[in-house]
């Protein structure tokens, strides 16, 4: 079976790469499982102090692979398992003790945008575009974003992004606090690796404690949001009208 995620650890940094470039790293069940395994292994690996999350090819992640939506939603157990695996990725990024640096370029849409929001520090390439298309299909987000996004960008901006599907370019993402820095695309990975290696050079306890303490007050809200989002999206996944909208929508 072809792996959809690659991992490499060097100098205390585990680089996790989404590797479905022909589909712009669109999310399917295999990618979600592979990403969960890769992040889980990185969080458990004593040699890893920092994780860099990136996408191969022309995009970070273009969101759910609509071609596979009928399979993802063919039954309640299948849909629930897919959504549970999807949320496990968000839990590993947000609640894992090691910092996760997002290196984002091209498109970060849907679940890809959610994973970007989950990251601790985001470096973004010029020309990046982000948006949440879920309401277009009658859906909601699944990555705890209903709790996280308003804290980052404020209520009004969060509503525009989630309800209206506002498209965010790199400059806007920087202004909203969704990205820490915007750099030329050719320099993105050099900048991400430099930041990650710098963090990895620090004593790990300080990194772990800082991440844990900063997230302490958000954890309860994040977990509650995940549970509510899971049930809301599951209901929509199993609604025949949703499948009809997805099938009729051009990719």
Give a verbal description of the structure.
- By secondary structure, the protein is of the alpha/beta class.
- Helix content is 51%, strand content 16%.
- The protein has 10 helices and 9 strands.
- It has helices at residues 29-44, 69-72, 76-95, 111-118, 145-153, 155-163, 170-176, 188-200, 204-237, 240-248; strands at residues 5-10, 13-18, 50-55, 100-104, 107-109, 121-125, 129-131, 168-169, 181-183.
- The strands form 2 sheets. A 6-stranded mixed β-sheet has the order 1-2-3-4-6-9, sandwiched between helices. Strands 5-7-8 form a 3-stranded mixed β-sheet.
- Helix 1 packs parallel to helix 3, helix 3 (76-95) runs antiparallel to helix 9 (204-237) and helix 5 (145-153) crosses helix 6.
- The longest helix is centred in the last third of the chain and has 34 residues, at 204-237.
- The mean pLDDT is 94.
How far is it from the N-terminal to the C-terminal residue, by CA? 26 Å
Oligomer: single chain
Structural class of the helix and strand makeup? alpha/beta
The radius of gyration over CA amounts to 17 Å
Number of strands: 9
Major β-sheet, in short?
6 strands, mixed
Strand content: 15-25%
